[in-house]
Amino acid sequence: MRFVEEFRDPDAAKSVLAAIAHVADEIGATREKPVHIMEICGGHTHAIFRYGLDKLVHGGIEFIHGPGCPVCVLPRSRVDECIELAERPEVIFTTFGDAMRVPGTGKSLMQAKADGADIRMVYSPLDALELARRNPDRQVVFFGLGFETTTPSTAFSIQQAAREGLSNFSVFCNHITVPPPIKALLDDPHMVLDGFVGPGHVSMVIGVHPYDFIARDYGKPLVVSGFEPLDLLQSVLMVLCQIRDGRAEIENQYARVVPEHGNPASLAAVADVYEPRPSFEWRGLGEIDASGLRIRDAYAAFDAETKFGVGYGAAAGRLVVEEPEGAACGAVMTGRCKPTDCPQFGKGCTPEMPLGALMVSSEGACAAYYQYGGARAVEVAE
């Protein structure tokens, strides 16, 4: 298949790995500490472990796993608010499958469904729209979740609901954006980051220029990457070459998919439907200014927060919920420690009985360590 097999070619990978080792040695001659490269996207984290890239690259390179998993960065308080909505008798609550097993304070959406709440897994917000058409006597709420990748589809659905006058359809908006948390990490004096592998799917929508501040203001390179082994290896090499040469630029390795200025139709829909929130709470990072999106007043009829008085739309404000005791979700999410450093990893927290979202999500760092490390990863944690 074009653009797949070419990026999994073993001989090509050996060539790029040799080039990485050569450049890493050149960098190592001028410094003692390893090069810390953060892959922002959870999809990249899973690809790194699936193909063993962390073991194949030069020993002077350390991957830091970033906050690029939208389910993982969702605080428990937002899950609690989802359950509050879902347990209303007039509501059909719809969500992507990844969010079903994320634990809230007392239960997950999956457990709320078992308790009788009408919660249905959908594959797109269009499925939720169809449910609203078929159930005019029920309120259908779609759990709008994700980075810039999924934001346009929710925006298009809200626009369609407005055109049809579907007053029984609304969105519980939890869409977030990638650049603000990167800035928060770079502003953290305890973080040691030398460069970034940028998210490919997000960049398909927003392009590459929203990352310009990383090079301009912080002097760090970022390379937008695809998801195949050679994509990631080439991106690491491009980051290393910039570090060796003393450059800090935003480069696009994934140019076969990512346009420089993003997708105009998607960006227009997002701008029409959403505006930045003053702040939004992130698991492990706390409140970050202008990092989340909310539905504009023009579409307030389709905003579940306003319609039902929950979340940031509640008159009494929101309750901040602490993370589970003993879990290191926040530290793992911000790259401060590895999943195996968490005392709950593989013991109190497993894919079957997750304590935190990072073990649930298909893009979570803990799930990647557990899935591809298996018993060996648990032994390391012990």
Please describe what this structure looks like.
By secondary structure, this protein is α/β, with parallel strands linked by helices. It folds into three domains: 5-69 and 179-252, 3-Layer(aba) Sandwich (Rossmann fold); 76-169 and 292-313, HypD, alpha/beta domain 2 (Rossmann fold), CATH 3.40.50.11740; 329-381, no CATH class. The chain contains 15 helices and 13 strands. The chain has helices at residues 10-28, 42-50, 53-56, 76-86, 109-114, 125-134, 151-164, 179-187, 200-206, 212-218, 229-245, 264-273, 304-308, 329-333, 365-381, and strands at residues 35-41, 61-68, 91-95, 119-121, 139-146, 169-175, 195-198, 222-224, 250-252, 274-276, 279-282, 286-289, 293-295. The chain has a five-stranded parallel beta sheet with strand order 2-1-7-8-9. A four-stranded parallel beta sheet has the order 4-3-5-6, with helices on both faces. Helix 2 packs across helix 15 (365-381). It starts with 9 loop residues before the first helix and ends with a helix.
Write the topology of this structure.
Blueprint: H1 10-28, E1 35-41, H2 42-50, H3 53-56, E2 61-68, H4 76-86, E3 91-95, H5 109-114, E4 119-121, H6 125-134, E5 139-146, H7 151-164, E6 169-175, H8 179-187, E7 195-198, H9 200-206, H10 212-218, E8 222-224, H11 229-245, E9 250-252, H12 264-273, E10 274-276, E11 279-282, E12 286-289, E13 293-295, H13 304-308, H14 329-333, H15 365-381
Parallel strand pairs: 1-2, 1-7, 3-4, 3-5, 5-6, 7-8, 8-9
Antiparallel strand pairs: 10-13, 11-12
Helix pairs in contact: 1-11, 2-15, 7-12
